[in-house]
Each structure stands twice: as C-alpha cells, then as structure tokens.
Write a structure and sequence with these properties.
With about 350 residues, the protein is an alpha/beta fold. The protein is built from 10 helices and 14 strands. It comes from Kitasatospora cathayae. Belongs to the thiolase-like superfamily. FabH family.
Length: about 350
C-alpha cells in the first residue's frame, strides 16, 4: 500500500448570532468586565437561542467546510462534542443526513476540551489506514445549555459555536498534511472536570439540580493544563523535528489567555505566534481549536505552508497535541438560524472550491 497521509483541504465555522458581553454578565453576577478580561482574556461569548442545538451549529459549520474544500460529501462524518443534541442517538448521523450524506458512517466522540485533537487524530488514522478517502470532522458545542448561569466560576468562561475541517487522502509533503499526533488520559482525576448527573451513575431525575451543570476545579485544572499541554506539545514538536522557533502558529485549546501565555512561555514560543481567539468567543470546548484556526486563517495569522502546533487539555482527564502543515484554503463562515443548513446538491463529490484570498 502506498504511503497515505491525511491532509486538511477545507475549514468552516459557525457562531450563533446572539452575543453576551462581560457587561451583560455583570448585571446578574458579582463580577465586572475588567475582572473577567484580566483573568481570562474573554470579552464576550456567543450563545444559542432556545431551540437551536449543537447539531444545528455543527450542520452549518460542516456545510461551510465542505464548501471550503469544494466537496459535496465525505466518506465519514465525525462529531466531537460534550453537548450532543440528546443522550441517544448520536448527533453525527443527523448532521450527515442533513448534509445529504445518508448512508455515510457517522459517530460522536467525546473528549471534552481535547475533543478536536482526539477527533483529528482519529480522522487522520481512518484515512491513513486506507479505509476512507475523506472525513468531515466537526467540533460543535452549546455549553450555555449545561452551565449554571448563577455560577461566576463557569458562566463567564464558556460560549457556543462550531467549526469543521475536511480531511482527504494525500501523500507525504502534500499541503495540509497532518504530520504527527499524541494523545493521553488520566481517568483517576475525572472529578476535576465533570457534569456529575445525567448518566447511568446518577440518572435524572434522581440527580440533584446542581449535578445537571458543568463543574470544574479551576485552580488545579489551570496548573495541570499548563504543564500537561507544555509536555505534550514539546513531545510532538520533537517527534517531527521542529524547534520552537520554527513553529509559525501555536494554537492551544482556548480556555484562558493566561494558560495560553504560560504554555507558550514555558515552550519558548514568541507571543506573536500564539493564536488567541478568546476575546471574541470565550471557551468553546471541542470547537475552540478549529474556531481559532478558522479565525487565524481569515485574519492572515496563518498561511499556506506554515508549521502549526495544536495542543489541548480537557475533562477525562484527556490531552493531546497535533503537528500539521497549513494548507492553501479560504475559511468559510456560515450563519445559523433556520432548522436546516443548506444542503449541497448535484452529482459527484466535488464542486469548484472558493479560491484563497491573494496574499
């Protein structure tokens, strides 16, 4: 079998239209814009309206990624999320169907804030194995549905959003090549990041009201995230032979600007190469890295051929890092609001992709 590599060929994103600013939160919580911004780097976050689901955002982002890649369909659809539309069935098959891909295999993957690096690793392996020629990887979250609005520790952090990438079969050295990935977990400390109720251990309605909401031991998570992401990112960079001054863009999970700065400083990555999209969207969990990538590409912060290092830490506990070369793609941003995103129509898998903006 020839040496097969997974390459990124398209990226799309979707943010719900409603925005909650720090000043809005200060009207209902004992906080202020300055306090939130100084401690997190977040100025606002997008939130879904009642009736809009993770699947709605994911469908719109998936359609945008397909448009970016110039495709009508993929061989597999993978959704990474902590907030599926319902406990059963999975949300990915519904996204696939809404995008005109009935019959295509589709499944959800849950690794909380590490979801995208887990999903990218799995999608790349599916292609590299020779089993699939293309994968639509969607990261989508509606954390506003699992956050206690009266809890200052979490209500100020999280937002809703989705982003997706298309990966296709390629060869070594191809633009967009996923070079190397490493993952890890430590379930012995799963209590640090959790939604205690709603599963088989504490099913509703037996679970108390507070157990419905996302809970996090912030201080310990902060320190663990910094050290674990530093170590993971370093190991992946070393595996592909990159020194830190060769990395063009460092894209960590967008949890907290202080975490990103601390990891970058310990790795020796210049501040101007650390991508931070927190001010506009907050922490969007499994959607945060692809949203940051789409934003950075649209802003010219990353361009074709750049060495990009991704890293994340999240509930589970889970973590991971990925090294890739950025492709020549133009991000497509979708809107959400209608029950179904527009479904690409016509024969064949491919359409003419949008052209990257001239440098």
């Amino acid at each position: 079998m020839p040496d097969i590599r997974a390459v990124v060929t398209g990226i799309g994103s979707c943010l719900p239209p409603d925005v909650v600013s720090n000043d809005d939160l200060s009207q209902v919580l004992d906080t202020s814009h300055d306090w939130i911004l100084s401690r997190t780097g977040i100025a606002q976050r997008h939130v879904v309206r009642p009736g809009t689901s993770t699947g709605d955002l994911g469908t719109a982002a998936g359609a945008a990624a397909l448009e970016s890649a110039g495709r009508r369909r993929c061989d597999l659809v993978l959704l990474v999320t902590t907030t599926p539309d319902q406990p059963c069935p999975a949300t990915a098959p519904q996204i696939a169907a809404r995008l005109g891909m009935v019959g295509v295999p589709a499944f959800d993957l849950s690794a909380v804030c590490s979801g995208f690096v887990y999903g990218l690793t799995v999608a790349s392996a599916m292609i590299s194995s020779g089993g699939y020629d293309s994968v639509l990887l969607v990261g989508a979250e509606t954390y506003s549905t699992i956050i206690d609005p009266t809890d200052r520790n979490t209500a100020v952090l999280f937002g809703d959003g989705a982003a997706a990438v298309v990966l296709e079969r390629g060869t070594p050295g191809a633009p967009g090549e996923v070079l190397h990935a490493e993952l890890g977990s430590d379930g012995s400390r799963s209590e640090l990041i959790t939604v205690p109720g709603g599963g088989s251990r504490a099913p509703h309605p037996a679970a108390d009201e507070a157990s419905r909401y996302f809970q996090m031991a912030g201080k310990e998570v902060f320190s663990r995230a910094v050290e674990t992401m530093r170590r993971s990112a370093r190991d992946v960079a070393e595996a592909v032979g990159w020194s830190m001054d060769q990395i063009d863009a460092f894209v960590g999970h967008q949890a907290n600007a202080r975490i990103l700065r601390a990891v970058g400083k310990r790795l020796g990555i210049p501040a101007d190469r650390i991508v931070c999209h927190l001010a506009e969207v907050g922490n969007t969990a499994a959607a945060s890295i692809p949203l940051a990538l789409a934003w950075a590409a649209a802003q010219g912060r990353i361009s074709a051929g750049d060495r990009v290092l991704l890293t994340a830490f999240g509930g589970g506990l889970t973590w991971g890092s990925v090294a890739l070369r950025w492709p020549a793609v133009r991000p497509v941003r979708a809107e959400v609001g209608l029950p179904d995103a527009p479904v690409p129509v016509g024969g064949g898998d491919r359409v003419a992709p949008p052209q990257p903006d001239a440098p």
